[in-house]
Design brief:
By secondary structure, this protein is α/β, with parallel strands linked by helices. The chain has 19 helices and 31 strands. It is globular. The relative contact order is 0.11. Bound molecules: adenosine-5'-monophosphate-propyl ester.
Length: 633
């Protein structure tokens, strides 16, 4: 790539002739033009590259907006395309998954053939436990191969998986199991985090005390430490695998394209987390197409998406997308700095990773340790890089580009959401890049920046980011709450999808994401809701009321700052602040542990009693408080 002066605004990195020559991606303008003129034709062409038990009657059914349906009338199963179809070809011997343990001592690899066997086994087991089509299964597992098998096993038999990130604690897990009314929970004895055990099974035991729907718990052995097991209800996965019912093929259910594939809880506005619903057909086509066009994966590639399977990035781009493409996906149990900050670079070298995808927060964190760590390793296998989860500051972009990519790897800054299921604003390898901009909407999509009353704002000005067209991997609803789906995403600007982000567009049509405009805090790329943090705080006996806000943080992007009003009889102290931070960690998640807690006598509220976090945020940063006409006296 090279930086050249051009007619485009700002600093632009153009792809080198070598990158262009290697890229097997559509010409941007031509594909965008095709999709603009014939949205259904564009997606039908993509869908035709995959296998269907029965093809669709209609690509897009928009007769009941905003409840869009895709590929109606078609029969399909995402697992057929992610696993079954590869086993019929030479790819049966290709590696589907390479896994490495946190300590680097264990390596497990699975060809598509053995992946199929593992999925069959897991599916046979859950089926024998009485899980059937439409049932919800909560999966609370660390980054180990069994999470892949468990998710695919659910999809194979038409059950709906609900993965809960294994970094969540008791209350967060309880809420998600309870809301989904899961009858089965799949977990492990524990997970390894920086050489220490994080209790998973004990957390499940605690969480399900008040979840009557749960009938069975499957426990994968990972750490090997002692955990309580309740007869009848709790089963070691190893023991189940030894049973005769675990053997043999399990049929892949022929489902309707619109049958649910999974729910994934995410935070949005106030209130409890929402269960975002994705379906088999459209999600399959969307993740396949975007991964193919953006990361241009080839058979010789080794793809590493360093996210956690518990978030949407892992669902779409560690598991479903790469497998549908027949790619080799790499998965590492640990994090980037344990035991030393060269862990990732060492693994890239050792496993010959060619395409690497991570979050800006990780890059910023690793930058702090200096260039010597990556420079110790041969990173020449890399040909493409990517980022996701939050805006990337140009400084981090340039470091990633220079130190990791050696100025030859384009960086795919992909903007998307749990709700979108697939990349929505993103470059492809042949597109000129601007550090800090996710470039332009994907083929078939149009984005707009609107003001509060729905008028487009001039280029260069900040406004609400909305999407104009439906897309196949879009969420179908909030599971069990259609009304919330409409209210949350389609009401502010009728007919347009409200992303919850603010952004700007420049004169070249490039989008620059600024951040969330709702009550979401992005901590190290993790999406957390203020409501959940606040409810963890008020569950402590000393707390009467609490407000959580996100303030800029050099490495984490945003950090959580809380304002707490104590109950009568309690006095604020550094010890109590520490106790409350720990309380949030054990009830919600260690990633939600507040950076700072301030004790206050009053919280700014509207006359109707809503806490004005915006005002707290402005005050904390010494910025103007904006419109405070609704502030109570
Ligand atoms: O604010 C945007 C930010 O992450 C939000 C979605 O979070 P989540 O549902 O957890 O999904 C994250 C992974 C897909 C968005 O509303 N975001 C995501 N990608 C980017 C981003 N902000 C800026 N640039 C990105 N590339």
């Amino acid at each position: 790539m090279s930086v050249v002066q051009s007619e485009m605004e700002g600093e632009v990195y153009f792809p080198s002739p070598e990158v262009i020559a290697q890229a097997n991606v559509p010409d941007w303008e031509a594909a965008a033009e095709f999709a603009r003129n014939d949205l259904e034709g564009f997606w039908a062409e993509q869908a035709n590259e995959l296998e269907w038990y029965r093809k669709w009657d209609k690509v897009l059914d928009d007769s009941n907006k905003p409840f869009f349906k895709w590929f109606t009338g078609a029969k399909v199963n995402i697992v057929h395309n992610a696993v079954d179809r590869h086993v019929k070809t030479w790819r049966r011997n290709k590696l589907a998954l390479i896994w490495v343990s946190e300590d680097g001592k264990e390596e497990r690899t699975f060809s598509y053939y053995s992946l199929n066997r593992e999925v069959n086994r897991f599916a046979n087991i859950i089926k024998a436990m009485g899980v059937t089509k439409g049932d919800r299964v909560t999966i609370y597992l660390p980054r180990i191969p069994e999470i892949v098998f468990a998710m695919l096993a659910c999809a194979k038999i038409g059950a709906i998986h609900s993965v809960v990130f294994a970094g969540f604690s008791v209350d967060a897990l309880r809420g998600r199991i309870d809301d989904s009314a899961s009858k089965l929970v799949i977990t492990a004895d524990g997970s390894w985090i920086n050489g220490k055990i994080f209790e998973l099974k004990r957390t499940v035991d605690e969480a399900i005390k008040s979840c009557p729907s749960v009938e069975n718990i499957i426990v994968v052995r990972r750490t090997g430490h002692e955990v309580p097991m309740e007869a009848e209800r709790d089963h070691w996965y190893d023991d189940l695998c030894a049973l005769p019912i675990a053997n043999g093929k399990c049929v892949t259910e022929q489902l309707d394209a619109e049958d649910p594939l999974y729910i994934l809880y995410t935070s949005g506005s106030t209130g409890k987390p929402k269960a975002i619903l994705h379906t088999h057909g459209g999600y399959m086509v969307g993740t396949y197409t975007t991964l193919k066009h953006v990361f241009d994966l080839k058979d010789e590639d080794r793809w590493w998406c360093a996210a956690d399977p518990g978030w949407v990035t892992g669902h779409s781009y560690i598991i479903y997308g790469p497998l549908i493409l027949g790619a080799t996906s790499f998965m590492f149990e640990g994090g980037p700095v344990y035991p030393y900050p060269n862990r990732w670079w060492q693994l890239i070298e050792r496993y010959g990773i060619s395409v690497f995808y991570t979050a800006p927060t990780a890059i910023r964190g690793l930058m702090r340790f200096g260039e010597a760590w990556p420079n110790k390793h041969d990173l020449s296998s890399l040909r493409l890089l990517g980022t996701v989860g939050e805006p990337i500051n140009p400084e981090a972009w340039k470091w990633y580009y220079r130190v990791i990519g050696k100025e030859k790897c384009p960086i795919m800054d992909t903007w998307w959401q749990t709700e979108t299921g697939m990349f929505m604003i993103t470059p492809t390898p042949v597109v000129p890049l601007k550090p800090g901009s996710a470039t332009r909407p994907v083929f078939g999509q149009e984005a707009e920046i609107l003001d509060d009353s729905g008028n487009p704002v001039p280029d260069g000005e900040e406004g609400y980011l909305v999407l104009k067209n439906p897309w196949p991997a879009m969420l179908r609803t909030v599971y069990g709450d259609d009304e919330r789906y409409v209210r949350q995403y389609w009401s502010k600007y009728p007919g347009k999808y409200m992303t919850g982000d603010s952004a700007k567009r420049d004169a070249d049509g490039y989008f620059w994401i600024i951040g969330r405009v709702d009550d979401v805090i992005k901590v190290s790329g993790h999406r957390l809701g203020t409501a959940e943090i606040e409810s963890a705080l008020v569950s402590h006996p000393a707390v009467a009321e609490a407000a959580a806000i996100g303030l800029p943080h050099e490495v984490k992007g945003q950090a959580i700052h809380c304002f707490v009003l104590l109950r009568a009889g309690f006095a604020g102290s550094p010890e109590l602040a520490e106790e409350l931070r720990q309380h949030v960690s054990t009830h919600m998640s260690p990633i939600a542990k507040p950076e700072d807690i301030k004790f206050v006598d009053k919280l700014p509220k509207t006359r109707s009693g809503k806490i004005m976090r915006r005002v707290l945020k402005a005050r904390a940063q010494g910025l103007p408080e904006g419109d405070i006409s609704t502030l109570e006296e």
